[in-house]
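Q: Is it fine to ask for two folds in a single conversation?
A: Yes, each is treated on its own. Send the first.
Q: Here.
A: Result:
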Amino acid sequence: MTSFSASIWTVSPFDPPTATPEQRLAVGQLLTDSHAFALPDDPPLRPELEALGLTHVSPDEAARHFVVWDGDQAVAWGSLGYSLTQNLHAAHARLIVHPDLRRQGLGRAVAEALREAAREEGRRLITLGTTSHVPAGDAFARTLGAEPALPMRQSQLDLAGLDQGLLDRWTARPEGDPYRLHLWTRVPDEFLGRMVTMMEVMNTAPKGDLEVDDWRITPEMVRAWEDMIEEAGEIRLILAAEDTRTGELMGYTETFWHPERAALVYQGATAVRPEARGQGLGKWLKAQMLRHVQAEFPGARWVRTNNAEENAAMLGINVALGFQPWASFTEWQVRLG
């Protein structure tokens, strides 16, 4: 067990870009230790990459961080991220307390700092997420006055058991099919504007009771996300379906993989335009992406994804592919008086 010296804790503002490398690494170590405690069977995180991630902020967004220090060791951390151009009423919070120091008031202290920061930034709603792999998270969220707004299912697919016959059926397209697939790690310039509008189709995904407006995406955001992914050494595959009659993108799916955590692949967004649904594009995209995962991500064993419990269509596709329930995840919201 780690030894801690402090008995009275102070919550201090923390600015990752101007902090020392040692300070950023200390917070990265806290995130790594907390992840290992919650998910001991997962490939471990790297403190250096977690530290790097602290500096990543999308265009038109800002973040405020707070840390509780015990000497040069970070024992609690919280962040408040928010847009400067949209959803100006809302902010998203993350909060981590070292596993050996929970139930000692550190979480409440950091939460109050985040709440006050949200007020200072003119926000009246804070969203946050909890997972069933940290059961105390739900109870803690309720003590903050949070309400569950969007229940989600976290599912996992064992690639060793993938039904290749199903993939064959889902990737077979009718003669004269007007759609073709593109595979990218970065969106080509000539498709960037079309990809932006395609990604905004994710606004049609269920929001539950979350009191947030649709998000708007810009080309600058897409390029910044790509740069941050590459800087972290991660590989993102994007598979997009183009209607060759119009040149419009009608669906896409994405996966994320890091060679240092090779066994685990994260399935990101999957979306099909409402007017193109019912033609098997979602199944085609998901099945073809799994074939690319198997071919291009050496060592990949598991694919993990999140879906809103009310998103019956996507859950149906995932269940048919062999995804099994792995955990539950809840998006909460706190209204500030």
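Q: Second one now.
A: Result:
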Amino acid sequence: MSQTYQFNMEMTCEGCANAAKRVLGKQGDKVTEVVTDVPTKTVTVTSTLSADEVLEVLKKTNIAVSLKGC
């Protein structure tokens, strides 16, 4: 079952947003949707992975990231 999570990510440009999309894209069908919003520094992810698993994947970008609301 898919869940939707929001993350705060210190994105400064579309390059940062694309880095997030690229690492999440490597998860195949475990990630069904990725929406990045550079002005609000938010990444919304719909996935069958847990929030912690998605967070670990996003950390591979070497951009500061945290689960929104934590």
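Q: Anything structural to flag on that second result?
A: Two points. Strands lie at 3-9, 31-37, 42-47, 65-67. DSSP finds two helices and four strands in the chain.
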